[in-house]
Design brief:
α1 crosses α2 and α1 packs antiparallel against α4. The protein is elongated and about 110 Å long. Strands 3, 4, 5, 6, 7, 8, 9, 10 and 11 form a 9-stranded mixed β-sheet that branches. Strands 16-21-22-23-24-25-26-27 form an 8-stranded antiparallel barrel. It has 4 domains: about 140 residues, Serine Threonine Protein Phosphatase 5, Tetratricopeptide repeat (Alpha Horseshoe), CATH 1.25.40; about 110 residues, Immunoglobulin-like; about 45 residues, no CATH class; about 220 residues, Porin. The chain is α+β, with helices and mostly antiparallel strands. The longest helix is centred in the first third of the chain and has 19 residues.
Length: about 575
Amino acid sequence: MRRSFRNLALVFGLLATGTWIHFSSDARADAKTEAEAKKADGEAMDLWLAADFKGAKAKLEGALKKCGKDKCGGEMQAALHRDLGVILFAMSDKKGGEKEFEAAVAADSGITLAKDYLDNPDVKTAWEKAKKGAAATPTVTTTTTGTGTATPPNPDAEGNLSIEAKTAPIGYVLPIVIDVPDGVDAEQVKVSYKTKAMDKYKVIEAKKEGGKYVTRIPCEDTQFQGEIKLYVRAYDADKNEVEHFGTLKKPAIVTLVEKMPEGEEAPSFPGGKEPDKCTDKGDCQPGFPCDPNANKKPQGSGCDTDDECQAGLACVDNDNGKKWCYETASSGTGEPGKKDAKGGKKLWFGADVQADFLFLGSADDICNDGAWACVKDGKDVGVKKDQGGIPTVTGGGGKTSGGPALGTIRAFVSVDYFITANIALGARLGFAFNGNPSANAKFFPAHAEGRLSYFLGKGPMAEPKGIKIYLLGAGGMGEFDAAVPNIVAVPTDPADADADSCVSSTGCRVSGVKAYRLAGRGFAALGGGFWYMVSPKVALNFALKILLPLPTFSPGIAPEIGFKF
């Protein structure tokens, strides 16, 4: 059964920000380890704010591991297990959460979980089950302040910090000036804020100016009327939270208005310094200047309506059954977010490297075959033709038993042009290496290729993310040479023979000859591959082709790798 864990995440946020237990170390506890554990618990909250549940879980598990059996007090261990249990419930790990709740109560039977926030039935059931049978009287959760005193929890309390801004005009930098009471040992102050257009809170750090902590919310988040939710946390030198203002569930509210109410002044920085006015980037709402894409979601972001997306984008369905922002058809004939042939063309440039493997058949007298070139030490080798009276161990003109052979390596630049969302026409120009060095059969290194690619499903133009599989057909000009080493033949000129070979029973021989199969200089190819979309504008290309050199035929395969942009 699927349940919403939104309130459950709020529980953890409140536990981490406003309902700390006032810890007292066991006699056995190691003070340094316990302090590190408490710090880790606070850092887990920062990860949670960034929606990094896995990171928060890892922090808490690491703290528990360091605490071991006796390096942290029971209250500290209980708090770590409790908060880890809440995280596991948020990650839909019900059994894991139940075990952590049980471990929390076992470590300290007086550990509490604020009842005001136990509005998730699964959490409530698991917590009550863990507490059942505990003999200890429930303890009172307290908040530790920088003065060393503790106050009872109050879910309606806003905290002892305060900010001066309540209402502010749109189109200006928003000053956030934070008052920290005397006696609160604050070394660091952070502000978490969220507008209606934002999916999650942003965290910004305040700096001390004129005896107060000051930060600013930038123009990109102050362009539209509405509420900005925020809460403030103050930390000591050990990164422990010592005070706060507002909570995730009950944040402070700053209202952005087009015109300040009569008699009310706009917020300013310490010393009465006025905030900067945002740059006029065009009228996107009547009455005030703003960037038409401010607070709007970019391509690929989740959405519910077209109004949430930047200009030129629409909120459309993707393949995962969800909605996202994507560019609209430009020709006016297609549906929003869909590409038609006129409006969806896109050009991709690239660079690729290809290796050629040819499959050779067995052959005799290869050095006398026009489709082969035989070279030794950079010099063409002249050999006698096979004759019946010559020993046939190796053949007068050399022999090969066949098999696969690595041939040329080629590099080229490419361009692909999408004529539809799935079909691209491409061209490649390049240069081949590792060809034959014969003077009699000069290698043709140029490579020119045309290709047609068909992308299965949604291609890179329609949905620029993930893996995009394609089929291809290609053809063009290119020579494909593959070398067969260590050929032995009978040279025409005995002077070219190996030393002392002419006095042997087999007659004059030349060994160490490298025979090159010359295939091409035209070719056709069929194959397939995929683009891995690193971003909507960058992709890695992997492909494998069946190579068919023409008219000199020696089939092969050609893997390629490269990138597109």
